[in-house]
Automatic annotation (TrEMBL):
Matching SUPFAM superfamilies: UDP-Glycosyltransferase/glycogen phosphorylase (SSF53756)
Glycosyltransferase family 28 N-terminal domain residues: 13-158
Protein name, per record: UDP-N-acetylglucosamine--N-acetylmuramyl-(pentapeptide) pyrophosphoryl-undecaprenol N-acetylglucosamine transferase
Top-level taxonomy: Bacteria, Bacillati, Actinomycetota, Actinomycetes, Cryptosporangiales
Location of the Glycosyl transferase family 28 C-terminal domain: 210-377
Organism of origin: Cryptosporangium minutisporangium
Length: 389
């Protein structure tokens, strides 16, 4: 590195968004890089206007620029992909590519990080056109459409799973490195007692295992229904902490009010968890949840026994694939397709009744976890970076 380049902050362009699964790993990597460089980092986030990534960047004090984006709506029927909406959005791709190329050319990044979502495609292509190093990070076991596109031009493909390597185009496999999916450091530092104190879980029985049920920030109607049906039995076996989504709290509290007092004391329902989440995860012996990439990264990094109920409408069936991948390795129990309350009971019961079985699944999950994923990804970014004057 020349003295001129050493005198200025490291420059990073990051692009990825549309969902939290693309946005938050990117943010975690940015924070890890800031820590590694002791703050000597200049970041430009390129994404879609009025998007999740734009709000996250603003909240973090990261400069944000938007480019035109086009979303390809996939369908098994190729003719349906020629819809008016798809054709209109595809026409926006060249516009976005030109805008991204202008931003990359002016900012002159040392490296570009793309974490997926359709907005990452024009930025990744712009990095290639401007001859800037491009690191593409894939969060899921299977590659998303955007990252499959960028794999052919990436300097490095950072993957979350060894099994993803063989899914890359043959020409891109030599550039692959398995980093894992970045997990926020706070998630790894939870304390069970803090969850009990913060949420007032004084009715929880310390002799029983604790089940944490979550369907994500908004809750999941399917999971809420299954747990509601199962509550009278489940509460004889465990304490239950249920994050159900803000819209569903009152209904479930009404259900809880009909339970015997000793069972109701072991049930805590909440719409949303904020800073308490790491402590709740630390408290949980078993987690019942969806199987998005971020959730999988957290559960495996922590080594949690889990029952995974994939969101059937997830793009490309990614959640089902994630759940099946862990279930095949004995690192989770996967419930795919139509799921009944009896199915959930059959999956949860052995984990609650047998601590050794619970430890077995938790240990297998931990073997798949990469709690140092953010640092591994930072290593890749620094290794391929090419400083500019």
């Amino acid at each position: 590195m020349t003295s001129a380049s050493a005198a200025r902050p490291f420059r990073l362009i990051v692009s990825g968004g549309g969902t939290g699964g693309h946005t938050y790993p990117a943010l975690t990597a940015v924070r890890a890089l800031q820590s590694r460089l002791a703050g000597a980092l200049d970041v430009l986030w390129i994404g879609s206007a009025n998007s999740l990534e734009s709000r996250v960047a603003e909240a973090e004090g990261i400069r944000f620029e938007s480019v035109a984006t086009g979303k390809v709506r996939r369908d098994r029927n190729p003719l349906k992909m020629l819809s008016a909406a798809n054709m209109r959005d595809m026409a926006r791709v060249p516009v976005g590519a030109n805008e991204a190329r202008s931003l990359v050319s002016k900012f002159r990044p040392d490296v570009v990080l793309a974490t997926g979502g359709y907005v990452a495609v024009p930025v990744g292509l712009a990095a290639k056109m401007c001859r800037r190093p491009l690191v593409v990070h894939e969060q899921t076991v299977r590659l998303g459409l955007a990252n499959r596109t960028l794999a052919r031009v990436a300097t490095r493909m950072a993957l979350s799973s060894e099994s993803s390597v063989e899914l890359l185009p043959e020409s891109a496999r030599a550039s692959a490195v398995v980093t894992g999916n970045p997990v926020r450091p706070a998630v790894l530092a939870g304390e069970p007692q803090k969850a009990i104190e913060a949420l007032g879980l004084q009715g929880f029985d310390p002799v029983l295992p604790t089940v944490y049920v979550t369907g994500g920030a908004q809750g999941a109607v399917q999971i809420n229904r299954l747990v509601r049906e199962l509550l009278p039995w489940l509460l004889t076996q465990a304490n239950v902490l249920h994050q159900c989504g803000p819209a569903n709290v009152e209904d479930l509290r009404t259900v809880a009010a009909t339970l015997p007092v000793e069972l109701a004391a072991r049930y805590h329902v909440t719409g949303y968890l904020g800073t308490e989440l790491p402590d709740v995860l630390a408290l949980a012996d078993v987690v019942v949840s969806r199987s998005g990439a971020g959730t999988i990264a957290e559960l495996t990094a922590l080594g949690k026994a889990s029952v995974l109920i994939p969101y059937a409408a997830a793009a490309g069936g990614e959640q089902a694939h994630n759940a099946r991948h862990l279930a095949d390795a004995g690192a989770a129990i996967g419930l795919l397709g139509e799921v009944s309350a009896d199915d959930l009971r059959s999956a949860v019961a052995p984990l609650l009744a047998d601590p050794s079985r619970r430890r077995e699944v938790a240990d297998a999950a931990r073997a798949h976890g990469r709690p140092d994923a953010a640092d591994r990804l930072v290593d890749v970014l620094l290794a391929v970076a090419t400083p500019t004057a």
